[in-house]
Amino acid sequence: MVAAIRPDSWNYALFLHVLGAAVLVGALVTAGSMQVLGWARDKGGGAMFARLSFRTLLIVAIPAWFVMRIGAEWIRSKEFPSGADEPSWIGIGYVTAEPGGLLLLISVVLAGIGARRLAKGRGADWLTRSATVLTLVVLAAYLVALWAMTAKPD
Amino acid sequence: MSRYDWLLFLHVSSAFALVASLVLYTVLIAALWNRDVPSEAVRLFRVQRVGDVLVAIGSIGVLVFGIWLAIDVDGYEVWDGWIIAALVLWIVMGALGSRTGKLYNAARDRALALSRDGSDAPSPELRSLLQDRRALWLHVAGIVTVVLLLVDMIFKPGA
């Protein structure tokens, strides 16, 4: 296999895209782990983990999603200027990134309402558990995207 | 998928695991910063296990699959400047991570000991361990090192 050489001018966009994607996956892993731990903990622990997972999604995952998407569009515009044929792995990127972003947003809202209700001592099991499932679904989708971006299937 | 595709996927996945562990530790450090109740700290430290698994898989994976790629791909050699720089950064990252881990593990062990003794009153000693500036700066230095590794991998200076 010969090393794939890309123009230096693509590097800034690729760096932004990869950094955003890596931090996004990290935030999803962190929030997902806290949400799963929150299921098994007592009332106080559940509220603490719910609040922390909500803040992680809001303060880390959402900004990272934007960095990842801006970087993605930037490098796509360089690698495949308008009119150029796009390979299927670009399509996989779009299919996972955009619906994933919407699910992430829904997850943040559910986690936020759930954390607020738990802090007030009200039940919020379905809210926090739905947020957990959505977070883990988004994480799985982005791992598929990671495979598509590196393996580049035709 | 060719062997190159698999190696690249595993190398990048390992790098993502490494960054994920840093994100998790950063959130954990921030969440623990103003805690002084042992049982709360013990609860939060449970998340650390996920980070420990990720950092082990990530740090070993990037090294093994990275060297394998350098050997497998024509045009790259293990002794290329940017690959040697990456190896040096990997060693620095490991040393920083090891020292950071020791400081935070000491805080975790103290929280566990206080909690086991049945003392759940706020502990100024625990708070000072969790707010250890040296541990925080070592963690920040670890993040900077991983960002430099990412810059080196993408920009490949001298390649």
What does this structure look like?
The complex is a heterodimer of chains A (154) and B (159). Chain A is 82% helix and 0% strand. Chain A has 154 residues and is mostly helical. In chain A, helix 2 packs antiparallel against helix 3 (88-119) and helix 3 runs antiparallel to helix 4. In chain A, 42% of the residues are buried. Chain B has one domain (3-155). Chain B has 6 helices and no strands. In chain B, helix 1 runs antiparallel to helix 3 (48-72), helix 1 packs antiparallel against helix 6 (133-155) and helix 2 (38-45) packs antiparallel against helix 4 (81-116). In chain B, 41% of the residues are buried. The A-B interface holds A 1-3, 5, 8, 11, 14-15, 18-19, 21-23, 25-27, 29-30, 33-34, 37, 41, 45, 48-49, 52, 56, 60, 143, 146-147, 149-153 and B 1-6, 8-9, 12-13, 15-16, 19-24, 27, 31, 40, 43-44, 46-47, 50, 54, 72-76, 147, 150-151, 154-155, 159.
Give structural attributes.
heterodimer; A: about 150 residues; mainly alpha; Four Helix Bundle (Hemerythrin (Met), subunit A); elongated; B: about 160 residues; 6 helices
Oligomer: heterodimer
Shape-level CATH architecture of chain A: Up-down Bundle
Determine the number of helices of chain B (DSSP H or I, runs of at least 4 residues).
6
Mean pLDDT of chain B: 94
Unreliable segments of 5+ consecutive residues of chain B: none
Number of helices of chain A: 4
Helix/strand-derived category of chain B reads mainly alpha
Structural class of chain A: mainly alpha
Helix content of chain A: over 70%
Work out the radius of gyration of chain A.
Answer: 18 Å
Largest sheet of chain B: none
Number of strands of chain A: 0
Order of helices and strands of chain A: HHHH
Mean pLDDT over all positions of chain A:
88
> Quick one: overall form of chain B?
elongated
Tally of discrete structural domains of chain B: 1
Gross morphology of chain A is elongated
Give the number of DSSP strands of chain B: 0
* Gap between N and C termini of chain A: 17 Å
Rg calculated over all Cα atoms of chain B? 19 Å
